[in-house]
Amino acid sequence: MTIENGVRVMAGFMILVSVALVHFVSPWWLLFTAFIGLNLIQSAFTGICPANAILRKFGFKDGPARCSIP
């Protein structure tokens, strides 16, 4: 799995955890969901993504993005 795909999996997992926390614990967990969204937006503009460094340490490799339209 490439780093790009790993970032998507990590973000999706964190969003699902956040939704579960909102449902079972407190609506204040929506702030965590907002933080994830803002981090994804800023990384699109700046190219700085903390998840990349984390996934590199776990052995993920750089690769081409898979969302291109043929």
Question: Which keywords apply here?
Answer:
mainly alpha, 67% helix, elongated, single chain
Task: Summarize the model shown.
With 70 residues, the protein is mainly α. 67% of the residues lie in helices and 0% in strands. The radius of gyration is 14 Å and the shape is elongated.
- Give the overall average pLDDT: 88
Structural class: mainly alpha
Oligomeric state of this protein: single chain
The number of helical elements comes to 3
Give me the count of strands: 0
H/E element sequence: HHH
Sequence stretches where pLDDT stays below 50 over 5 or more residues: none
Approximate helicity band: 55-70%
Our Rg estimate from Cα atoms comes to: 14 Å
The separation of the N and C termini measures: 21 Å
Q: How many domains, in number, for the residues?
A: 1
- The amount of beta strand, in percent, is under 5%
User: Major sheet, described briefly?
Assistant: none
What best-fitting shape do the alpha-carbon axes yield? elongated
